[in-house]
Recover the amino acids of this structure.
């Protein structure tokens, strides 16, 4: 669930960076009045880096555990708050001239807010579940921290994984 929230948040932030966030009619000289537009990436330059941070957070959440995952979760939650702030900062809901892409401007900001909420939720979930969730490489933890296998076939495979020859009866009894 954490990974899905971070991936969807990153996608929403990237999408918000591509939409128009600001538009106005300007005097274009001999061309007359022209429509001037700025994308989310131009108005809120942090959107793409925050999306990339959320993507990197996916790998970090999978690869880490314990206190490292908690620290990463806090960083992701703060990034989500920053994305929400980018979306709501300077937004207005009225006073638009006819012909401006108002729907796209509000949709872009809404996507940034949604993406920020998803990234923050993923970060908070990573903090909350840091001790319980499995991490990459947990199978290769120190033998004292793992449960012993009860299945004889599994014990043979474990011995092979540890570099021992399970068929060598002489080596097993001489210990």
């Amino acid at each position: 669930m954490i990974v899905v929230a971070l991936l969807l948040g990153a996608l929403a932030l990237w999408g918000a960076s591509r939409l128009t966030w600001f538009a106005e009619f300007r005097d274009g000289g001999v061309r007359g009045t022209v429509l001037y537009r700025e994308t989310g990436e131009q108005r809120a330059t942090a959107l793409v880096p925050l999306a990339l941070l959320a993507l990197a957070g996916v790998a970090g959440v999978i690869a880490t555990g314990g206190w490292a995952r908690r620290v990463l979760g806090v960083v992701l939650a703060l990034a989500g708050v920053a994305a929400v702030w980018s979306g709501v900062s300077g937004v207005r809901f009225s006073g638009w001239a006819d012909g401006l892409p108002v729907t796209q401007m509000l949709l872009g900001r809404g996507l940034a807010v949604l993406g920020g909420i998803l990234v923050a939720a993923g970060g908070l979930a990573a903090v909350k579940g840091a001790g319980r969730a499995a991490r990459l490489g947990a199978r290769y933890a120190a033998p004292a921290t793992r449960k012993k296998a009860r299945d004889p076939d599994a014990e043979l495979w474990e011995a092979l994984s540890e570099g021992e020859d399970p068929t060598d009866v002489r080596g097993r009894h001489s210990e």
